[in-house]
Amino acid sequence: MSENIVVEPNDNITVETPIIDNQIPAENPVENPVENPVENPVENPVENPVENPAENPVENPAENPVENPVENPVDNQTPIDNQNPVENQNPIDNQNPVDNQTSIDNQNPVDNQTSIDNQNPVDNQIPVVINNNDNQTIIYNTIKQVLFININMHSKNMNAIVKYKDISLTTIGSPDQLSQYDLSAFDCVYSPGLVFDISAYPNTRFIFGPHVSVFPEYSFMNYLKDQSNAIYVQPSQWAADVWSQRPESNQVPISVLPFGVDTDRFTETQTLGQRENVFVYYKKRDPNELQSVLYRLEQRGITYRVFSYDDRYDEADYLAYIQTCKYGIWVGEHESQGFALQEALSCNVPLLVWNVTSMSQEYGSGYCYIPASTIGYWDGCCGEFFTDFAEFDAKLDCLLFRINMTVSERETFEFWGYKPRQFILDNLSIDACSRKFAGIISSFANDIVNVKC
């Protein structure tokens, strides 16, 4: 199990907050008390880089960038009222879990540990900062060891988690394989798509979700009731609130854990001034709402291109086009995370979002009023949003004014400029979400120290 090195008040260590994609500096070299210029200094045989260059085991088909199952409850769920919880898992992306897991049934568990298990923990200290009102929780962790049960993992989430530098994954395909491992060697067991009986493992920490189902059910949440060693995660606060307020899960700790956006792939290739195009993104909203937006754009003489989630657009085509856009307009349903939207922001494209306030606004869903949002992660630097179409013209005018400012105006009114990519880098990049994952594990383990800042 990895150890935590707590920063004491008298330690001569400077911590910059917030930490944005920074790694802890290299360890201080030990001075050699005996200088000998003649002898060849011996290299350290235990050098071990912090990076974890794991290749992504799951290729995400470009033509079908499926969002998180909480976002698409109708398309991605099956009736589950009276089913066995094991059978009642929502297949994400129609993937076969066996295709996406490391096959280790007949292997020695020791052989399946990633190479980071044998690293010197001093070389792998990771700074984690958790904000909590006026307090900041600051810890220094070694890389977290996670036993990962790869069942129903969303492909985008998988693409992110295998790149995290703050955790080391050992992958299995079923809870039945837990008995093959010394669980005390792991900081936690992570099962994104299956909740099961953990009563036999009182000393092991478990993290479940977010791919088990759209809404909690007694059939599987009862496994976690009154268990102090388990939490369930949702990608955004509004989705976590929905679960926290339902009777099936209100006695289980629900935490917020987003997954990293691939900012290397989804990046800016042209400056804002060089871009001329406009795109409209449409996903599971009343078709009349889309037509209202398109009609208004045509009245203004604005040309555009529509990308429809329902038509299963090609992701490579989507990426290539939005990199030529000065802005985008979003007419979409609720999103528990919203990768496609965040990937547009990562390309430094400001957005005008017609935000939802309820899951019932998903076209054809039949949901009652359940508070929700299209933009679970958002800041003023990302663009503009509205909830009532009567605001559309005013919000579009504001967006265009801020986009079309001259260079001198941008220098004078710097706070008016949009910086959507910086928002993603700060909050939802691979490195940022890697630190969040490590922080969740540490916080859950009750091995952190609050430092008043």
Task: From the structure above, extract its key features.
453 residues; six-stranded parallel sheet; disordered C terminus; disordered N terminus; alpha/beta; five-stranded parallel sheet; globular; Rossmann fold; 16% strand
Largest sheet, if any? 6 strands, parallel
The shape, in one word, is globular
Structural class: alpha/beta
Average residue-wise pLDDT: 76
How many strands?
A: 15
Distance between the termini: 29 Å
Walk across the major sheet and give the strand order. 5-4-6-7-8-9
Number of domains: 2
Query: Percent range for helical residues?
Result: 10-25%
Helix and strand element order: EHEEEHEEEHEHEEHEHEHEEHHHHE
- Radius of gyration, CA atoms, in whole angstroms: 24 Å
